[in-house]
Amino acid sequence: MRLASGGLVLEVPPGWEARIRRQPPSQPGRPGNALLHASTIPLPERRGDFGSGVVENLGPDDAFVALLEYDRKDADAVLFVAGRLPVPRPSDFSPTVLQRTRAGNTGAQWFFALSGRPFSLHAVLGSHARRSPGAVKVDRLLRGLEVS
């Protein structure tokens, strides 16, 4: 399946569900910016930017990804100095990265800019012990992402 919106194109791998939306202009700091969610479990209609409502339901072999766009004026900030998508490695994931810790879950976060657009990528895996195959799943998803 191919998903396209807001200058993002994602070839969704089998076993993943994904959605892209524009953030409401009323949210400070990200008016109208793109937000992509992808998960190996069904995405509920109501979910938080970083996956609340989803990550609590991840099984040990599941993954959730949130790609949040920030304002273009921030693309030159040091935080977004990386100019490419991350290549997730098992060592990138840690239970201490999570906004809300849950037994077994592990997460990673990266900041970068693509096509002059600053992003944060937040990934949560259902099991820290199984982070190696989880990192491979997230990497496979990201290989299908294009930003214009």
Q: What is the succession of H and E elements?
A: EEEEEEEHE
Strand line-up in the sheet with most strands? 3-4-5-7-6
The chain-level mean pLDDT equals 93
Count of the separate structural domains: 1
Please tell me how large the radius of gyration is: 14 Å
- Number of DSSP strands? 8
- SS summary, helix count: 1
Q: Give the end-to-end Cα distance, rounded to a whole number of Å.
A: 19 Å
Contiguous uncertain segments of 5+ residues: none
Q: Globular, elongated, flat, extended or rod-shaped: what is the shape?
A: globular
SS-based class: mainly beta
Structural features, described:
By secondary structure, this protein is mainly β. It has one domain. Helix content is 8%, strand content 32%. It has 1 helix and 8 strands. The protein is globular, with a radius of gyration of 14 Å. The two termini are 19 Å apart. The mean pLDDT is 93.
Helices and strands in order, then pairings?
Blueprint: E1 2-5, E2 8-11, E3 17-22, E4 34-39, E5 63-69, E6 106-114, E7 117-125, H1 131-142, E8 145-147
Antiparallel strand pairs: 1-2, 2-8, 3-4, 4-5, 5-7, 6-7
